[in-house]
Design goal:
Radius of gyration: 20 Å
Bound molecules: pyridoxal-5'-phosphate, 2-OXO-4-methylpentanoic acid
Strand content: 25-35%
């Protein structure tokens, strides 16, 4: 293995040595299979290809200050994959199988776990697909569950420097009673046009509004939204956003710091009243937001005037990373140590 430049890793695919897979067939899950190749042999009529029976997860493992490897809240990702699977009628993956697969990928690829303190982590990507053949619109009878992973750097190139977001009203990512709360590929396909255009226009990401009224903040393309106003941590309450595990954790950390946590609808106009705004997620961690521009009205909400992250976002970021890297007591039992 040639030397990895840990400090300058992008967020992207990184080939490692092993992935693991399990197969659902004839009403039961197989044992895990360890594989070295990166390909899947799929039936051409597999439902994932035609009818979008596909869900995925994203979670991270960290090398701590004590040299131990910690996975962050894998039980929550397992739960969410069950929710996603049920949402689009796929066979759910049992939690034990999910966690065993993630642990195995970490252990087998241990040499790719970034060292402590370089600002990188090991990103795990569990995937569940309908592999059985159907031509009528029906759920498959067979499924493949696989997990691969690799070392990654920050999702937004600037790292912890504030980035600009764009509000769009001419594209919706999900329907009001649709699949927004499931982590299914179709949601991301539906976000691509708006996201690529936003990038071309100089923004890091899109901020989607609720698709019924285009009035309330939903979430960013790859991350949840939160705002700080005085001593309050405020985040949208919406049926059409992903239940971000990072956001849940930040709400707890904020409460532990003595902040008030509000989950409620947030109107676009309220953006001008916030002290700090951030996008949060496994890949994004906390990405502070510098400004938000509404593409349809041209209205600009400036959040960070000096180009730096705000003090509360910085505190939250340090607390989260501190727990994940074993520097701060994990008092809620979020980390799973991989031995
Ligand atoms: N929202 C969307 C659309 C996402 O893709 C992600 C990434 O997983 C998140 C929010 C953040 O969720 P989590 O913190 O569980 O990674
Ligand atoms: C994650 O944060 O895990 C995500 O899935 C975001 C993006 C890479 C889709």
């Amino acid at each position: 293995m040639s030397q990895i430049d840990w400090a300058n890793l992008p967020f992207g695919y990184f080939k490692t040595d092993y992935n693991v897979r399990a197969y659902y067939k004839d009403g039961k899950w197989s044992d895990l299979e360890v594989r070295q190749d990166e390909m899947i042999n799929l039936h051409m009529a597999a439902t994932c290809l035609h009818y979008g029976q596909e869900a995925f997860e994203g979670l991270k493992a960290f090398r701590g200050v004590d040299g131990k490897i910690r996975m962050f809240r894998p039980d929550e990702n397992a739960k969410r994959l069950v929710l996603s699977a049920n949402g689009i009628m796929m066979q759910p993956v049992p939690t034990d199988l999910f966690i065993e697969a993630c642990k195995k990928v970490v252990k087998l690829n241990e040499k790719y776990i970034p060292p402590y303190g370089v600002g990188a982590s090991f990103y795990l990507r569990p995937l569940l697909i309908g592999s059985g053949a159907q031509v009528g619109v029906k759920p498959a009878k067979e499924y493949v569950f696989l997990v691969f992973g690799g070392p990654v750097g920050p999702y937004f190139k600037s790292g912890f420097k504030p980035v600009p977001m764009q509000i769009v009203k001419d594209y919706d990512r999900v329907a009001p009673l649709g699949t927004g709360l499931f982590k299914v590929g179709g949601n991301y396909a539906a976000s691509l046009k708006a996201s690529e255009r936003a990038h071309d226009e100089g923004f890091s990401t899109v901020l989607f509004l609720d698709s019924k009224e285009h009035k309330y903040i939903d979430e960013a393309g790859p991350a949840n939204f939160f705002a700080i106003k005085g001593n309050k941590y405020i985040t949208p309450d919406s049926h059409s956003i992903l239940r971000s595990i990072t956001n849940m954790s930040l709400q707890q950390i904020a409460a532990d710091m003595g902040m008030e946590v509000e989950r409620r609808p947030i109107e676009e106009e309220e953006l001008s009243t916030f002290d700090e705004i951030g996008a949060c997620g496994t890949a994004a961690v906390i990405s502070p937001i510098s400004k938000i521009v509404d593409r349809s009205t041209g209205k600009e909400y400036v959040v960070s005037k000096d180009g730096e992250a705000g003090p509360v976002s910085t505190k939250l970021y340090k607390a989260l990373r501190g727990i994940q890297e074993g520097e701060i007591e994990d008092k809620h039992g979020w980390n799973l140590i991989v031995e």
